[in-house]
Fold these 2 entries.
Entry 1:
Amino acid sequence: MRVLGVDPGLTRCGLGVVEGGIGQPVRMIAVGVVRTPVADDPAERLFSLQTEIDEWMERYEPDSVAVERVFAKANIKGIMGTAQASAIPMLAAARRGLPLALHTPSEVKAAVTGNGRADKAQVTAMVTRILKLDTAPKPADAADALAIAICHVWRGGAQDRIAAAVAKQRAATGARG
């Protein structure tokens, strides 16, 4: 299974593609960060993000998309940009008919470190170890995107198979009716 993991953000959006399966090693295919200038209009920033994610979808052809679930922080302005940015990969997955999963930060941390309260340094260290990388992915948004993708490979595979089976059954029922 090939997964595009997205750590959403309007200023920095982490993207990571991994491939693997349950009981198989996970390997990194690509990692990067999309940056948009704070001074630009929000609509332009979202458009830039959409363009880049669409290019990643075309280039890496993921089987599913995993996005970090947005959670409320004290900074309302910051959370709005993150929420808006998280919609972009969700829409990209829907346009392509790909399974989409949202994973909470604590779920991702627990999956890759064994501790749902791990800090960014611990997540980065484990991502580096799991993927057998020579150097740690930087900035943290890149490592987080890979962690989200790894989490989905390890925890989301069953969810994807269930969603695919439900969709197949709906299509078959609709075809008969």
Entry 2:
Amino acid sequence: MNSILWLVAFAAFVVVEGSTTALVSVWFAVGSAAALVTSLFNDSLTLQFGVFAVVSAVALAIMVPLLAERRKSRKVPVTNGSPLTIGKRGIVLQPIHPGELGRVRVDGLDWQARSEVVMEANVKCEVESVDGAVLIVHPVPAETAAGTL
């Protein structure tokens, strides 16, 4: 009879975990599976509940640090308009006039760009900010632009 209890508990925890993506009950599903196996060999509900509690706690203690390390090591994905482009240098592909969009190449990618000053094609530029997927650039003075791409 206890086996049915732990099987129902296991199924319930799996359903709850399946309906969320927050890892809120997977520890209890592991614990109830261990208690289910224990119930096949021992009729003591106290022992089964102890196994459930200990295995759930151990699963939680093992997984939380692993998940925290995984979250910490994730890199921010580079997307259009990523702040990772700020400070990078590139070259103007299509002329940029104040109030109009031009195009620049930064890190091998073509971007739409704006500038407060006129920038002709083939001028070296630096990204000062990002507005959505549009880079805000300014020209790089000739003496600092030499050899910086």
